[in-house]
Write a structure and sequence with these properties.
Elements lengths: L27 E3 L2 H10 L3 E3 L7 H17 L14
Parallel strand pairs: 1-2
Length: 86
C-alpha cells in the first residue's frame, strides 16, 4: 500500500533581500529610492545616486568619508548624508 505524504514548508516571506551590514558593508550605493527606504527601515546607510547627476562620484565619496569618520569614532548608526551641491 502506497501512502501519499502531504506537507507544506512554511517559510517567512523575506522582508528585505539583502542586509549590507551582515557582509561588513557600511554604505550601500544604489539608484533605487526603494532601497533607501529599506535602509531607513532596517538601519543601514544608503546613498541614492541619480542618472542625471554628473557629480555622483563626489557625492558618494563625501558620504563614504562621513560614514568612515563616524565608524572610527565608534558610531554604527546611519548618518544623514551631506547636502548635495546644486
Amino acid at each position: 500500500m502506497k501512502r501519499k505524504l502531504k506537507f507544506e514548508i512554511e517559510r517567512p516571506v523575506p522582508v528585505i533581500v539583502t542586509y549590507p551590514p551582515s557582509f561588513g558593508i557600511a554604505l550601500h550605493v544604489d539608484d533605487s529610492e526603494g532601497v533607501r527606504l529599506e535602509g531607513e527601515e532596517h538601519g543601514f546607510q544608503v546613498v541614492v545616486v541619480r542618472a542625471d547627476d554628473e557629480r555622483w562620484t563626489k557625492w558618494v565619496l563625501d558620504v563614504a568619508e562621513q560614514v568612515a569618520t563616524r565608524a572610527m569614532n565608534g558610531s554604527s548608526e546611519p548618518c544623514p548624508p551631506p547636502e548635495r551641491a546644486a
